[in-house]
Design a protein that fits this description.
Elements lengths: L3 E4 L2 E4 L6 E9 L1 H5 L10 H13 L4 E10 L10 H13 L4 E4 L5 H11 L2 E4 H12 L3 H18 L10 E2 L10 E2 H36 L4 E6 L5 H9 L16 E6 L5 E6 L9 H6 L1 H8 L3 E7 L5 H14 L9 E6 L6 H12 L8 E2 L8 H14 L1 E8 L4 H10 L1 E8 L2 E9 H10 L4 E3 L2
Parallel strand pairs: 3-4, 3-5, 5-6, 9-11, 9-12, 12-13, 13-14
Antiparallel strand pairs: 1-2, 7-8, 10-11, 15-17, 15-18, 16-17
Length: about 450
């Protein structure tokens, strides 16, 4: 076999340093999918396989091939039909494949049978996403969440079909009693570790809760970025805040939430939060494990749903994000949501203009912002849209304070959003904005000096 071959129109070269991987996309055909529990997918099979390839490349393997496999039914033993298993096995031998990535959820038995047939390690979509998360988590919380999800996945893989787990273990008390099998011991040890991690995560959540409470008292509104992985959230975050969060054309480039302050056009300040990217068929254990990370979204005053509008599957990706948000209790018609159509710089000028006209025709509360995180196009309008959306849920006041009232001025900066300060003859006039729940405290603190601007 030559050192460089052509597969699927792409050149690939052998590299001794990386694992040689083959990506399989086994998808039900349209007729079979329509009759399945999940119904037909919104995505084209080729687009789904492209995404699976992107996921595989995110763990830095050497891709030596990709195969689209259309199925009329799912086989309980191997997921694929017998003939297709034999074809893939021959291809795996020919390409000296070490890892086969299968873009579906495999049962433990299916995984074991395919590994035997292919003489290679087999990993399904859930295992692959967990692998990526394991490599990318940077904070203690992120690492704990990934480990918890990984242990839940490993626990589900402990089945009696693995003969080495059927040995009887003699007991010394601390490793299990007499007659306890290896599989029972492994399951118990995993459960004990999961319990410890859950306790640690509870402590992390309490700490984050205190941080959120202190931020609410400041009180700057929180604006959270959500979206499909690789939609450009981190690039948008960097452009708006002039930060340097890791942003790359790579699936799941961001895992841990990042917060930065940002000033709006009329002087108000917000806290912008970048979050983990969503993906179709996200393992349920990860939705649960990352709930603490996504609490920034649940607490947000405004949620920016960033979409890669240039992507061929933009609508399907948008639907996947809405589905996960719904699992978190955020309806697609939530008044906090603003759609951000990112990457308009990748569209032809005529298509760009059509998108802007489409957005302008929508009612103001449903209007999307067409932007480019690369060129900055549309960002001023986006910031104004955020300001308008925040203004709906916040009361606007003007208050006059003497220059000598340092305590009063300090209270305003600590407990309200100061939009403007103007020197006047009597002292200073402040234009402030407060959440409705803070209004009563403000009126008690300055009963005679407030002017309602709402």
């Amino acid at each position: 076999m030559s050192s460089t071959e052509i597969f699927g129109g792409e050149a690939w070269a052998r590299s001794a340093a990386r694992t040689r991987a083959l990506v399989l996309g086994p998808y039900l055909n349209e007729r079979a999918a329509a009759h399945s529990d999940g119904g037909a997918s919104l995505r084209a099979p080729e687009a789904r396989l492209d995404e699976a390839e992107g996921l595989a490349l995110a763990i830095d393997v050497e891709l030596v091939g990709r195969e689209l496999v259309m199925l009329s039914q799912i086989r309980p033993a191997t997921y694929l039909g017998k003939g297709k298993v034999e074809d893939i096995a021959a291809l795996a031998r020919e390409r000296e494949v070490e890892l086969v990535v299968v873009d579906c959820a495999l049962s433990p038995v299916q995984q074991r049978n395919l590994e035997k047939a292919f003489s290679a390690k087999v990993i399904d979509r859930t295992g692959l996403i967990l692998e990526i998360f394991g490599e990318r988590a940077r904070t203690r919380e992120g690492a704990l969440q990934v480990e918890l999800a990984h242990l839940a996945y490993q626990k589900s893989r402990l089945v009696r079909s693995w003969t080495h787990l059927e040995r009887q273990r003699g007991g010394f008390g601390f490793l299990g009693g007499p007659g306890e099998t290896q599989i029972e011991t492994d399951r118990r040890l995993i459960q004990e570790r999961m319990t410890r991690i859950e306790r640690d995560l509870d402590q992390v959540k309490r700490t984050r809760g205190l941080h959120r409470k202190s931020r609410r008292e400041v009180p700057f509104p929180i604006v959270a970025l959500v979206g499909y992985t690789n939609a450009g959230k981190s690039s948008l975050f960097n452009k708006l805040t002039k930060a340097d969060v890791f942003a790359k054309d790579l699936l799941f480039a961001t895992l841990d939430p990042t917060l930065r302050g940002l000033k709006l056009p009329h002087g108000g300040k917000i806290i912008l939060s970048d979050t983990v990217g969503f993906i179709s068929d996200l393992p349920h254990m990860l939705v649960s494990a990352f709930r603490a990370t996504l609490e920034e979204v649940l607490e947000a005053d405004v949620i920016l749903h960033v979409r890669d509008i240039s992507h061929e599957d933009a609508d399907a990706q948008g639907a996947d994000v809405e589905k996960i948000l719904a699992e978190l209790g955020i309806d697609r018609h939530d008044p906090r949501l603003i759609e951000v159509w990112n990457k308009i710089d990748l569209l032809p000028p005529q298509e760009r203009e059509r998108l802007r006209e489409k957005a302008a025709r929508k009612p103001e509360e449903e209007r999307a912002s067409a932007v480019s995180a690369v060129t900055g196009d549309g960002l001023d309008a986006l910031l104004e849209g955020i300001e308008t959306r925040l203004g709906r849920d916040r009361a606007l006041f003007e208050i006059m304070l003497d220059d000598s009232d340092g305590e009063g001025q300090a209270w305003l900066y600590a407990h309200t959003e100061v939009l403007q300060r103007q020197a006047v003859e009597e002292g200073a006039a402040f234009q402030i904005r407060v959440p409705h729940e803070t209004r009563a405290r403000l009126e008690r603190r300055f009963p005679q000096r407030l002017r309602d601007l709402n």
